[in-house]
Write a structure and sequence with these properties.
GO molecular function: 5'-(N(7)-methylguanosine 5'-triphospho)-[mRNA] hydrolase activity; metal ion binding; RNA binding
Number of domains: 2
CATH superfamily of the largest domain: Nucleoside Triphosphate Pyrophosphohydrolase
Strand content: 15-25%
Protein name: m7GpppN-mRNA hydrolase
CATH class of the largest domain: Alpha Beta
CATH architecture of the largest domain: Alpha-Beta Complex
Low-confidence stretches: 286-293
Number of helices: 10
CATH topology of the largest domain: Nucleoside Triphosphate Pyrophosphohydrolase
Number of strands: 9
Family: Belongs to the Nudix hydrolase family. DCP2 subfamily.
Cofactor: Mg(2+); Mn(2+)
Keywords: Cytoplasm, Hydrolase, Manganese, Metal-binding, Nucleus, Phosphoprotein, RNA-binding
Order of helices and strands: HHHHHHEEEEHEEEHHEEH
Strand order of the largest sheet: 4-1-6-5
Length: 324
Amino acid sequence: MSDEEKSRTVKHSIPFDVLDDVLTRFIILVPEAAKENLIRICFQIELAHWFYLDFYVGNDDRCKSCSIFEFSAHVFQHIPSLKSEVPRLAHILQEWKEYKQSVPTYGAIILSEGLSHVLLVQSYWARTSWGFPKGKVNEDEDPAHCAVREVLEETGFDISPYLKPDEYLESVINDQVVRLYIIKNIPQSTEFKPRTRCEIKACNWFAVHDLPISKKDATPKMKMGVSPNSFFMVLPFIKRLKQICSSQASVRRHRQKTMSLNENDTTSKSKNKGDEQKFKKRDKKQSKRQLFTEDDDYVVEFNAPSWLNFKFNMTEIINCLDNV
């Protein structure tokens, strides 16, 4: 059976009162001009679908989980102005998905203290896959604001105090711009609680050096028992991420080494200064003469102990002169 035939035969498993409530929140009140744009309507249907999964499924025994296609079929069949488009539903949703891929996505790479671990999230709809918290930008929304909003929704953590607009990694994946802001030195003890239900299943820390740099990299399988395919959404960023963490680690090691050398140098200088004062004190007691060069400003202390008790014997000198 084709998607078009399926859209015509979907039965209303969603209670009408629930459907009315959800559609009133997200579609009915949309401006008339916007309702003429089916792509815009699909975005509203997506929001309505998330709301339905978050607040009705699991709380109302009458409501069962369903795909975006099934939910859209219910909506198109329920709203009089959309009924005529039911035969084209599959085509409309395909156009909407293609358009979504062209909308930039913004999020964050959250790194632990020491940049040893990175936070990844797991979706309910891709339970074997892990990715960075991120989401699509709204119309006229600032990229950094979008990243803060999406990360807050998916992890419950506010990155705004740590976000630096110029520090990010960016890639074009399937014609879609994906920008991830680098958030550093977040304690691993931080508690993450997704604010959206039925979207994010888990938030976990992963060691950066255990993440794969290619689909054939068996490191995560050996270290964590997880297939490298589970990280396909983060693969375009891993190599650059490891370079950042490695360079930062080198800087820290160099800084620690420099501090250690400075401490040793300070200790050595202190010791040398003590020895110098000790020798000067002793020399002051022993030295009774100074030799002067032609430069009167240049003084050399003469410290030969054998000259300290030297005296001229004048009698012997006179006798020698008399005998000459």
